[in-house]
Amino acid sequence: MDSTNTYEHSVEASERDRLDKAFDHERSAQAEALDASWRDKLSQLELASETQMERRLYMLTEHEVELDKTAAEEAEAAIFAKHKLEDDIMVLRDQLHYMGALHQLNEVQDDVQLWRPYL
Questions:
Q1: What is the Cα–Cα distance from 27 to 20, expressed in whole angstroms?
Q2: What pTM was computed for the model?
Q3: Domain positions in the chain
Q4: How do residues 35-73 score in pLDDT, each as one tens digit?
Q5: Tell me: the pLDDT tens digits for 25-34?
Q6: DSSP track, 10-63
Q7: How far is the CA of 51 from the CAs of 39, 43, 56, 62, 115, in angstroms?
Q8: How far apart are CA 73 and CA 10, in angstroms?
Q9: Half-sphere exposure of 30 (CA within 13 A, CB side)
Q10: How far apart are CA 31 and CA 23, in angstroms?
Protein backbone atom coordinates (compact mmCIF):
# COMPACT_ATOMS: atom_id res chain seq x y z
CA MET A 1 0.00 0.00 0.00
CA ASP A 2 2.88 2.25 0.65
CA SER A 3 4.06 1.99 -2.90
CA THR A 4 0.54 2.77 -4.14
CA ASN A 5 0.33 5.85 -1.93
CA THR A 6 3.75 6.94 -3.02
CA TYR A 7 2.85 6.39 -6.68
CA GLU A 8 -0.43 8.30 -6.27
CA HIS A 9 1.36 11.02 -4.39
CA SER A 10 4.00 11.18 -7.12
CA VAL A 11 1.33 11.30 -9.86
CA GLU A 12 -0.56 13.91 -7.93
CA ALA A 13 2.60 16.03 -7.48
CA SER A 14 3.47 15.57 -11.14
CA GLU A 15 -0.04 16.56 -12.20
CA ARG A 16 0.07 19.59 -9.86
CA ASP A 17 3.44 20.64 -11.34
CA ARG A 18 2.05 20.24 -14.86
CA LEU A 19 -1.04 22.32 -13.96
CA ASP A 20 1.15 24.98 -12.30
CA LYS A 21 3.35 25.18 -15.39
CA ALA A 22 0.30 25.37 -17.67
CA PHE A 23 -1.21 28.10 -15.47
CA ASP A 24 2.07 30.03 -15.43
CA HIS A 25 2.38 29.65 -19.21
CA GLU A 26 -1.23 30.81 -19.78
CA ARG A 27 -0.80 33.72 -17.37
CA SER A 28 2.42 34.88 -19.08
CA ALA A 29 0.76 34.52 -22.52
CA GLN A 30 -2.17 36.65 -21.38
CA ALA A 31 0.21 39.18 -19.80
CA GLU A 32 2.18 39.37 -23.06
CA ALA A 33 -1.03 39.83 -25.06
CA LEU A 34 -2.25 42.52 -22.65
CA ASP A 35 1.17 44.19 -22.75
CA ALA A 36 1.13 44.13 -26.57
CA SER A 37 -2.37 45.62 -26.51
CA TRP A 38 -1.22 48.38 -24.17
CA ARG A 39 1.83 49.03 -26.34
CA ASP A 40 -0.43 49.36 -29.40
CA LYS A 41 -2.73 51.76 -27.57
CA LEU A 42 0.25 53.76 -26.31
CA SER A 43 1.68 53.92 -29.83
CA GLN A 44 -1.67 55.14 -31.18
CA LEU A 45 -1.89 57.72 -28.41
CA GLU A 46 1.65 58.95 -29.12
CA LEU A 47 0.83 59.21 -32.83
CA ALA A 48 -2.39 61.12 -32.09
CA SER A 49 -0.53 63.40 -29.67
CA GLU A 50 2.20 64.05 -32.23
CA THR A 51 -0.40 64.79 -34.91
CA GLN A 52 -2.23 67.16 -32.57
CA MET A 53 1.02 68.95 -31.69
CA GLU A 54 1.88 69.32 -35.39
CA ARG A 55 -1.59 70.75 -36.03
CA ARG A 56 -1.19 73.18 -33.13
CA LEU A 57 2.24 74.23 -34.40
CA TYR A 58 0.78 74.81 -37.88
CA MET A 59 -2.06 76.89 -36.40
CA LEU A 60 0.42 78.85 -34.30
CA THR A 61 2.51 79.59 -37.38
CA GLU A 62 -0.59 80.68 -39.30
CA HIS A 63 -1.67 82.94 -36.43
CA GLU A 64 1.79 84.48 -36.22
CA VAL A 65 1.70 85.25 -39.95
CA GLU A 66 -1.80 86.69 -39.63
CA LEU A 67 -0.75 88.74 -36.60
CA ASP A 68 2.29 90.10 -38.43
CA LYS A 69 0.10 90.99 -41.42
CA THR A 70 -2.45 92.70 -39.17
CA ALA A 71 0.29 94.62 -37.35
CA ALA A 72 1.71 95.81 -40.68
CA GLU A 73 -1.73 96.87 -41.89
CA GLU A 74 -2.40 98.70 -38.61
CA ALA A 75 0.96 100.48 -38.85
CA GLU A 76 0.19 101.55 -42.43
CA ALA A 77 -3.24 102.78 -41.35
CA ALA A 78 -1.72 104.73 -38.45
CA ILE A 79 0.87 106.33 -40.74
CA PHE A 80 -1.86 107.20 -43.25
CA ALA A 81 -4.02 108.71 -40.48
CA LYS A 82 -1.03 110.68 -39.16
CA HIS A 83 -0.30 112.11 -42.63
CA LYS A 84 -3.97 112.95 -43.14
CA LEU A 85 -4.14 114.71 -39.77
CA GLU A 86 -0.96 116.63 -40.54
CA ASP A 87 -2.43 117.69 -43.90
CA ASP A 88 -5.70 118.70 -42.21
CA ILE A 89 -3.76 120.75 -39.64
CA MET A 90 -1.91 122.52 -42.44
CA VAL A 91 -5.19 123.26 -44.23
CA LEU A 92 -6.74 124.56 -41.01
CA ARG A 93 -3.72 126.78 -40.36
CA ASP A 94 -3.95 128.15 -43.89
CA GLN A 95 -7.68 128.77 -43.41
CA LEU A 96 -6.99 130.46 -40.08
CA HIS A 97 -4.38 132.75 -41.67
CA TYR A 98 -6.77 133.48 -44.52
CA MET A 99 -9.56 134.30 -42.08
CA GLY A 100 -7.22 136.52 -40.04
CA ALA A 101 -6.13 138.36 -43.18
CA LEU A 102 -9.76 138.69 -44.32
CA HIS A 103 -10.73 140.01 -40.88
CA GLN A 104 -7.93 142.57 -41.03
CA LEU A 105 -9.00 143.59 -44.52
CA ASN A 106 -12.60 143.95 -43.37
CA GLU A 107 -11.52 146.10 -40.44
CA VAL A 108 -9.53 148.35 -42.76
CA GLN A 109 -12.52 148.61 -45.11
CA ASP A 110 -14.81 149.39 -42.18
CA ASP A 111 -12.40 152.08 -40.98
CA VAL A 112 -12.18 153.54 -44.46
CA GLN A 113 -15.96 153.59 -44.85
CA LEU A 114 -16.38 155.01 -41.38
CA TRP A 115 -13.89 157.84 -41.95
CA ARG A 116 -14.64 158.49 -45.63
CA PRO A 117 -17.30 161.07 -44.97
CA TYR A 118 -14.87 163.04 -42.86
CA LEU A 119 -12.08 163.02 -45.42
A1: 10
A2: 0.50
A3: 2-118
A4: 888 999 999 999 999 999 999 999 999 999 999 999 999
A5: 999 889 898 8
A6: HHHHHHHHHHHHHHHHHHHHHHHHHHHHHHHHHHHHHHHHHHHHHHHHHHHHHH
A7: 18, 12, 9, 16, 94
A8: 93
A9: 6
A10: 12
